[in-house]
Amino acid sequence: TLNIPGIHNVYNALAAITISTDEGVSDEAICQAVKKFAGVGRRFENNGNYPVKDGAGDVLLIDDYGHHPTEVAMTIKAARQSYPDRRLVVIFQPHRFTRTRDCFDDFVDVLSQVDVLMLLDVYSAGEAMIEGADSRSLARTIRTRGQVEPIMLNINDMDQIRQVLGSML
């Protein structure tokens, strides 16, 4: 049994099993490795449950480093499949202005699929700002779709993000 969600992880596991088999690894060793594998850091990483402020349940915090629309889409799909009855709240920070510009429409499509969207400013990775390739432009375009009302967060500290998130849920 694979312990991590998402069809992309199934494909990755199948590839690893195929290569391991080709390299002569025993079926028993392969099965043990698949059973033990819990994923890698910041890829659909479960960071625990946090109580909701009114005491009516809890919030499951999943961290994923996906920074390309295809990766984000796979994470959203895995979350929807794994937790079909839960509201999907996403905090997203675009990585690089060039990627945001080049994948703008795909980001809009993917990020419009969530229940609540919070956007952080683009992490520039040393790039100069590109007009129209920033988080506010993403938020404006997503807003026109009418599926989700993006919330801009002007903070980059995880403790502050947790506080803002906690006050909203």
From TrEMBL:
<dbReference type="GO" id="GO:0005524">
    <property type="term" value="F:ATP binding"/>
</dbReference>
<feature type="domain" description="Mur ligase C-terminal">
    <location>
        <begin position="54"/>
        <end position="160"/>
    </location>
</feature>
<dbReference type="GO" id="GO:0008763">
    <property type="term" value="F:UDP-N-acetylmuramate-L-alanine ligase activity"/>
</dbReference>
<dbReference type="InterPro" id="IPR050061">
    <property type="entry name" value="MurCDEF_pg_biosynth"/>
</dbReference>
<dbReference type="InterPro" id="IPR036565">
    <property type="entry name" value="Mur-like_cat_sf"/>
</dbReference>
<dbReference type="Pfam" id="PF02875">
    <property type="entry name" value="Mur_ligase_C"/>
</dbReference>
<dbReference type="InterPro" id="IPR036615">
    <property type="entry name" value="Mur_ligase_C_dom_sf"/>
</dbReference>
<protein>
    <submittedName>
        <fullName>UDP-N-acetylmuramate--L-alanine ligase</fullName>
        <ecNumber>6.3.2.8</ecNumber>
    </submittedName>
</protein>
<keyword id="KW-0436">Ligase</keyword>
<dbReference type="InterPro" id="IPR004101">
    <property type="entry name" value="Mur_ligase_C"/>
</dbReference>
